[in-house]
Design a protein that fits this description.
Layout: E1 14-16, E2 23-27, E3 31-35, E4 38-40, E5 56-57, E6 82-83, E7 96-103, E8 105-106, E9 111-114, E10 118-123, E11 126-131, E12 136-142, E13 159-163, E14 168-175, E15 187-193, E16 203-209, E17 218-222, E18 225-229, E19 243-246, H1 248-253, E20 258-263, E21 277-281, E22 292-298, E23 309-316, E24 326-333, E25 372-376, E26 381-390, E27 399-408, E28 416-423, E29 429-437, E30 443-451, E31 458-467, E32 481-484, E33 502-505, E34 512-521, E35 524-533, E36 542-549, E37 562-567, E38 573-582, E39 588-596, E40 600-605, E41 618-626, E42 637-643, E43 650-657, E44 661-662, E45 671-676, E46 685-691, E47 697-701, E48 710-714, E49 725-733, E50 745-753, E51 770-773, E52 776-778, E53 787-798, E54 803-809, E55 818-824, E56 837-843, E57 851-856, E58 864-874, E59 891-901, H2 907-914, E60 916-921, E61 928-934, E62 941-947, E63 952-958, E64 964-970, E65 977-984, E66 989-996
Parallel strand pairs: 5-8, 6-28, 21-25, 44-50, 53-59
Antiparallel strand pairs: 1-2, 2-24, 3-20, 4-16, 7-35, 9-10, 10-11, 11-12, 13-14, 14-15, 15-16, 17-18, 18-19, 19-20, 21-22, 22-23, 23-24, 25-26, 26-27, 27-28, 29-30, 30-31, 31-32, 33-34, 34-35, 36-37, 37-40, 38-39, 38-41, 41-42, 43-45, 45-48, 46-47, 46-49, 49-50, 51-52, 51-54, 54-57, 55-56, 55-58, ...
InterPro entries: GEVED, Ig-like_fold, Secre_tail
Protein name: GEVED domain-containing protein
Keywords: Signal
């Protein structure tokens, strides 16, 4: 019989630690209770309840209020810990893999643990047991088949755990509603195998009643208990029990009156959903009792967090006097923690696009992903962990995995960051990670990959990478391997994915990883179990990993060839042959005479050089080792291509500032990124920027730009953008003898606006997530802070047609609440006025479906480029949809551009009536002029220059650059006097006089 104890005292003394100078708090348990055992028989002799595969949405995410501050936090640009290239050390493909669960439950909550002889897999809301060859022993069965406290309980969020020190399996789920018609409150349910064999040993089951739903529970092992973290009371976690500890020793014995203690997490901040983690012991070597760590990320984009860090609590349980047990704020780890952005879409649960027209899926933000593996070594203790981050916190989301190894020099000593990294080696999204560390200190990480790029679509797929203990810190050095490539998208509109993945380590060798995660076949959610290892298991195995040099550059006929050789085996190696061949030519063979330790790498430079001297040629190198008695010849050789680059080829690859904002100034910094595409370093070359058709600003880049390098350059002369309106900015390099002028320049559009209504909440689907007008389409628009600048996106609207159609889609609709309005800034004052509103409060009647709306352009609308603003949102809440500056409680505001044309006008109308021709004298450049004729006419025109005697000095063809015809005119050798410049055709044109002094 359960005995409820009310905590009649509060422990609230305060102490200080050197961690950001904060006051750290120690508190006692907020909850004490106990439960008695219900024993059940062996599954092999029980009547199993068949698992029924049918669509069902389990426990919708328990999410509290949004606690994200839009625009707050670092980084503002790319993740500083980013690993943008894959590792180059090959490992073997998975040993084997098999499909575990096949279900239509949403999400499936894949979990599984490997023991000495079995693999136990669970999901919403069933389980199965396999032998270690992937053969099914216990078929998919409902969780209630375990019996005892699990009778009639199938609410889910299961976790399977293997306690290696005790050689027992544990299966946990929560109960969200009263069981079997009783009035029981929500609870945590546990089943502990009575022996090592989960099939034949029977189970001890327990039900621990709680005051509210223990959402997203995760179990970890410490010496003195099983520790459970939850996403409980997310609205206001302060003072509420979030972490629980159970009497491990008594549970393993199947005792009655097993106690549970619940603790708050003092000082925790979250974004409305969260999942802290307990350090969980791997291997049979348990730590001393006490100081059980709990850890959680703290994102400075959240309310109350001023710097990204890892927050650590220590729990000390006294089972002889439970009231004296404590949890304390221990450390706020900032050293070694690079800024990160752990928030997607303001905290919403639909984040990452899938291929095709499918729902975005949940990135699983705000969670320390399961599990946080702790391992003891001779010289230190290590723990590894991971969580998802946005590596490019701009409108274009890009999910990567931030991972850490923390180390502790001795029991009881502070923890510190030993290494960190953010794994995002290409343009695909990576998330739902699970990380582990083997007995040698090698790290493996499994995760999910998705990419909506039509040129390289990736449906949710399961892959892994890793690193060896002696590799360069902060990098996953192992080549990415696939467990399974997805065949289908996540099919449901809620976007729920997995909720977690689960990587465990085989206790037999403490080196083999078993990873379980979710992918899709049609409407089925499938849990794929992949078995692999990072560590070497063969004595003699070497191979070439990578060509160190030469790399793509301007090359000669005598280039040194340097390779990196990997010893994949367990024996040290020396005195073996290495060779290379260029384009199938003669084989060059030499001897590597040094010693490479086991699981290590070394470089070797051949004495005989290679000829790579032909500019533009791509050479193929075959690089090989030839170790006698090599046990795996498949990894001996690699083929690499090397290109001889032209010496001079640079260009601007992006304009990084200014950007669209309210009330831009007359002193805006212009910052660009310059790249060296050529084969030689470059220095002292001109760079310029130009606002519209004004005179360019030219400066000199004085630093050295290395081959393949990107550098950021800020011009000394600022830009005057003080007037409201749209600006076209072009930036370019002006390198003499540049090989490819087509990559010299980049152009962007920015606007100085009178208002930008940031701060609307779109995490529930409000606002516009699809926009189509003319030949411009914007799909899968992210949420961000409710406002996004898309003014670089434009389409032509022919005013002679009069009527047009715009198509939009929202993620939320209820009755006539969600409405849509649109403006075009016809007078170009960057103020969206009432008379410029072309669509007003149109109802969007249904979510996740496109609706079209008609609008009209006045016949006398000014030709050329204009700003366009769209807004949509829930009009039942605060904010005026039809006030373009009002911040709506729920919705979005987006800005675009439109180019108004008129197909009924002929060239004479454009040139004689609409166009303006000007001649600009360029500053600080004697007798240099810029001839500009602004017009929306698009066909090529001719320019001529005559003197007053009628002699033609120049004739050329000019194309419209988007806003105007522009021609750079050099008159430095012309005689002083008056000249005539003309733009037009042979029949119609416009003429301007100018003077050369």
């Amino acid at each position: 019989m359960m005995k409820k104890l009310l905590l009649l005292f509060s422990l609230s003394f305060i102490f200080h630690l050197n961690a950001l100078g904060q006051t750290n708090e120690i508190v006692g348990p907020a909850f004490i209770d106990s439960a008695s055992v219900i024993k059940t028989g062996a599954l092999s002799k029980s009547r199993l309840i068949r698992h029924i595969t049918k669509p069902k949405l389990y426990n919708p995410r328990n999410r509290g209020i949004n606690k994200v501050v839009p625009g707050k936090g670092l980084p503002k640009v790319k993740d500083p810990a980013l690993q943008s290239k894959m590792g180059d050390i090959p490992v073997k493909a998975p040993i084997f893999s098999f499909d575990g669960a096949v279900t239509r439950s949403t999400p499936s909550d894949p979990t599984g643990a490997v023991g000495r002889n079995h693999y136990v897999n669970a999901w919403n809301s069933a389980f199965a047991i396999w032998d270690k060859d992937g053969n099914e022993i216990i078929p998919p069965s409902s969780l209630e088949s375990i019996g005892g406290a699990f009778n009639n309980e199938t609410d889910g969020d299961p976790i399977v755990f293997y306690d290696e020190a005790a050689d027992r399996f544990i299966l946990m789920q929560f109960s969200a509603s009263p069981s079997s018609g009783s009035a029981s409150p929500p609870a945590l349910l546990f089943a502990v195998s009575q022996g090592p064999d989960p099939v034949n040993s029977g189970w001890y089951t327990y039900r621990f009643d709680l005051g509210s739903l223990p959402d997203y529970p995760k179990i970890s092992l410490w010496n003195d208990g099983y520790y459970i973290t939850t996403n409980k009371d997310a609205l206001e976690p302060q003072g509420k029990e979030i972490v629980y500890v159970l009497e491990r020793d008594r549970m393993l014995q199947g005792s009655d009156n097993v106690r549970i203690l619940g603790f708050p997490l003092p000082g925790i901040q979250n974004n409305g959903f969260y999942s802290p983690a307990g350090f969980s012991v791997m291997g049979g070597d348990l730590p001393p009792p006490g100081n059980a760590p709990i850890i959680y990320l703290q994102d400075d984009e959240w309310v109350g967090v001023n710097q990204d860090h890892l927050k650590l609590w220590l729990m000390n349980v006294n089972w002889d006097n439970v009231g004296s047990s404590t949890i304390s704020e221990s450390q706020e780890i900032t050293d070694g923690v690079s800024p990160f952005t752990a928030t997607f879409d303001g905290g919403g649960f639909k984040n990452l696009p899938q291929p095709g027209d499918n729902s975005e899926i949940d990135a699983l933000q705000g969670a320390m992903m399961y599990m946080t593996q702790y391992r003891r070594f001779g010289t230190h203790n290590s723990v590894v962990m991971n969580f998802v981050v946005d590596v490019e916190p701009t409108a274009a989301k890009h999910a990567g995995i931030r991972w850490y190894e923390l180390r502790q020099p001795a029991d009881g000593a502070p923890w510190s960051v030993y290494q960190e990294g953010t794994y995002a080696p290409d343009n695909s999204d990576r998330f739902s990670g699970s990380i582990g560390i083997d007995m040698r200190g090698n790290i493996a990480m499994g995760y999910t990959v998705v990419n909506d790029n039509p040129a390289n679509p990736v449906f949710p797929s399961i892959r892994y990478t890793g690193r060896f203990v002696n590799d360069q810190l902060g990098l996953m050095t192992v080549q990415e391997e696939s467990i399974v490539e997805g065949e289908s998208p996540q099919p449901r509109p809620e976007g729920r994915y997995g909720d977690y993945a689960h990587l465990s380590i085989d206790p037999v060798d403490d080196l083999t990883f078993w990873h379980n995660a979710e992918y899709f076949i049609g409407v089925d959610r499938v849990n794929k179990v992949g078995v692999f290892r990072i560590a070497a298991n063969e004595p003699n195995d070497v191979g070439v990993v990578v060509l160190v040099g030469p790399q793509n550059a301007t090359l000669t006929n005598s280039e040194e060839i340097t390779i990196r050789i990997r010893n994949y085996g367990t024996n040290a190696q020396s005195n073996f042959e290495v060779s290379y061949r260029i384009d199938g030519g003669p084989l060059v063979t030499e001897v590597f005479e040094e010693t490479i330790p086991a699981e290590s790498s070394a470089e070797f430079t051949f004495e005989e050089t290679g000829d790579f001297s032909e500019i533009g040629e791509i050479y193929t190198l075959t690089l090989s080792t030839n170790l006698e008695n090599d046990s795996n010849t498949n990894n001996d050789s690699i083929e690499v291509e090397v290109k001889n680059l032209p010496p001079n080829d640079i260009g601007v690859t992006s304009i990084d500032s200014p950007f669209t904002d309210e009330n831009l100034t007359s002193t805006e910094e212009v910052t660009i990124t310059i790249s060296n595409f050529g084969g030689e370093p470059q220095q002292d070359f001109p760079v310029s920027y130009q606002i519209g058709n004004n005179a360019p600003v030219t400066e000199t880049f004085n630093e050295v730009l290395e081959v393949g390098e990107d550098v950021v350059y800020t011009f000394n002369q600022t830009a005057n953008l003080a007037s409201f309106g749209r600006y076209r900015i072009e930036a370019r390099t002006r390198l003499e003898n540049d090989f490819d002028p087509s990559n010299d320049a980049e152009t962007i559009s920015v606007a100085s606006l009178n208002c930008i209504p940031e701060g609307s909440d779109c995490s529930q689907g409000d606002g516009i997530f699809y926009f189509e007008l003319g030949d411009y389409r914007n799909e899968r628009i992210p949420c961000t802070n409710g406002y996004i600048d898309f003014i670089g996106g434009t389409t032509d609207l022919d005013r002679s047609q009069g009527d047009f159609t715009v198509t939009v889609e929202t993620g939320f609709a209820e009755g006539e609440r969600e409405k849509f309005s649109m403006w075009i800034d016809f007078n170009d004052n960057a103020v969206f006025e009432d008379e410029e509103r072309v669509i007003s409060s149109e109802v969007i009647p249904q979510a996740n479906r496109s609706f079209s709306y008609d609008f009209n352009i006045p016949r006398d609308a000014d030709l050329g480029q204009h700003l366009l603003r769209i807004r949509a949102g829930d009009t039942n809440f605060s904010g005026d949809l039809n006030d373009p500056c009002s911040v709506m409680a729920y919705g979005t505001t987006h800005d675009y551009s439109v180019n108004i044309t008129d197909s009924t006008l002929d060239i004479e109308d454009f040139i004689l009536n609409e166009a303006e021709l000007v001649v600009i004298t360029l500053p600080n450049q004697e007798d240099q002029y810029r001839v500009v004729m602004e017009t929306s006419f698009g066909e090529p025109l001719r320019i001529t220059v005559h003197d007053l005697l009628g002699q033609k000095l120049i004739e050329n063809q000019v194309v419209n650059d988007g806003d105007a015809y522009v021609y750079e005119l050099d008159m430095s050798y012309a005689a002083p006097g008056v000249y005539l410049v003309r733009f037009g055709t042979r029949k119609v044109g416009k003429v301007k006089r100018f003077i050369v002094k």
